Amino acid sequence: MLYIVTVDLDNAAFCAEKSFLRVVVVVVGGTVTDIDKLAGSVSNLQAGFESHRYICSSQIATAVYLAYQLRKPVLVEGPAGVGKTELAKTTAEMFELPLIRLQCYEGLDEAKAIYEWKYGKQLLYTQVLKETLDEVLQGAKGFTESVKRLHEFGDIFFSEEFMEPRPLLKALKEENGCVLLIDEVDKSDHEFESLLLEILSEYQVSIPEIGTIKAKAEPPIVFLTSNNTREISDALKRRCLHLYIPFPDTDLEQRIIHARVPEIPPELRRQLVTFIQELRDLDLKKVPAISETIDWARTLLLLHTESLDANLVRDTLNVILKFQEDIDNVDAEITTLISKAIKN
Predict the structure, then answer these.
(1) Which of 177, 284, 300, 305: disulfide with 326, CB 3.0–4.6 Å?
(2) What Å distances lie between residue 53 and 94, 143, 189, 259, CA to CA?
(3) Same domain, yes or no: 126 and 263
(4) What CATH number corresponds to the domain at position 44?
(5) Same domain for 257 and 322?
(6) Count of other CB atoms within 10 angstroms of residue 118
(7) 70 has which bridge partners?
(8) Which domain holds residue 144?
(9) Does residue 201 surpass a pLDDT of 70?
């Protein structure tokens, strides 16, 4: 059985476009024995990914195999849209583990990534304490003993009962393990990378008021993704296995389209993939990625297309190109590109 829970955590201190952190928790049932069997070899993993419609190279399957066997995080780099996030999501689905996702952004800190105190609950209990203050201090002799009794309640306020776990701490608290996705880590600050070092190396977090909280019996399988918008620190890279996912070659991209859009005719699939491959050789601000290829395949299918033609391609270029400048530049090359796609 599969449950998906999405929670938006509002914080008025952030600006409007960065005012929430979305935590996605996917809860499924699975056993360690089943996962051990599936992750027993690279070939098993590659076949498992394909059965879940994620067509991957042996290099990707090997990285996931090593991540599970060595309990090492994986830093997945590459252009946007090549399947980095989907790799973590498919791994969670394949292993039947909860998926906990942390979407990174500039200004992300420990209060939104690791833990935060339930200030409202602390305030409520403080009000209750005020109302029963005489009862609490009854029998106390002198100022020192009164302060000592109050100090006992202060410690209670900073216990796990009053703590709100965020994605990183949630991942450590999963008793049967989970897949932790730290998405687009390159969009966060260098200071946030420092917060990750302890959890990536020791699978634990240190909270000053409580102490060290370690992972349960099964530590999470961790994926970090990066679009290479900035250089990741050496300290973080040292703690991770490195995986680079490039744009796929023609054969691999055709297999991906066949898996994701199986209804599309083989000849049209060949033409559109060849067209996309030719586009990637042009000087564009943003070349189309796999996600755009899949979207275009679905678009052509909806339009009952049998073969590429100039008018159809012009009408749907906005599906695969995201900048008007790129669309204008490609427009003059459409006839040549279509000719190559059909004759190839």
Answers:
(1) 284
(2) 10, 69, 34, 5
(3) no
(4) 3.40.50.300
(5) yes
(6) 14
(7) none
(8) 115-162
(9) yes
